Amino acid sequence: MALVVLASVSCGTQHQTATPATATTVPVDATTAPAATPSPTPTPSASPTGPPPFSAKVTRISRDRLPYSWRPGCPVGYRDLRLVSLTYWGFDDKPHTGELVVRSSVTDDIVTVFRKLYGWRWPIKQMKLVDAYKGSDFDSIDADNTSAFNCRPATGSSNWSNHAYGIAIDVNPRENPYVTSDGHTEHQNAKKFTKRPTKGKGVINPGDKVVKAFAQVGWEWGGYWAGTKDFQHFSKGGG
Hints:
The protein is of the alpha+beta class. The chain has helices spanning 107-119, 137-142, 209-215; strands spanning 2-6, 24-28, 56-60, 81-90, 95-103, 123-124, 168-170, 178-179, 219-221, 229-230, 233-236. The radius of gyration is 28 Å and the shape is globular. The model is unreliable at 1-47 (pLDDT under 50).
């Protein structure tokens, strides 16, 4: 009699764990035994791969990163501003990294809110500094760009906007436009989003979880303003 060892072989990708080989002792006749046939290779099941975890990094920002959005005479010095690089969930259902500039005193608020939005996979079209549009609020909105700091007056006013203090942010401005009391918006690509409530990717409605997330850190929503509505706008303490 002879002993033949049969081994079970496993293969897979770098995401799969090989099954340890198991030895089995089988008695056979040495003169009549056929050649040993390898056991069939098992098909490994794919392991689900989740998105990368939320990340956020807060750093000082140099003057040259703000060639259009900051200038001498602004109500906040650029040394009091911070660059927040963070992950967000895109309209393409994929994670991305974007940048926001805000005042140093509100960086924790921003990280707290956007951590929640990422966990919910709540979509944001894009997130660049307004300097990518040469400081033009109109062009940034038309491109559906989520942005924060911009040293400019409030719309229709000679007073500084809260954006000029680094304590305001506009989120998905195409889907959440600035709408006058008579229902008008300056952006043609946003006309179908002038009513609330409405449905759509990246839309903010009264009382929804996005509004509540900002409210929990003391930020008010422009969608609750009387008359004119600014559905994209959140600011610390309102205004």
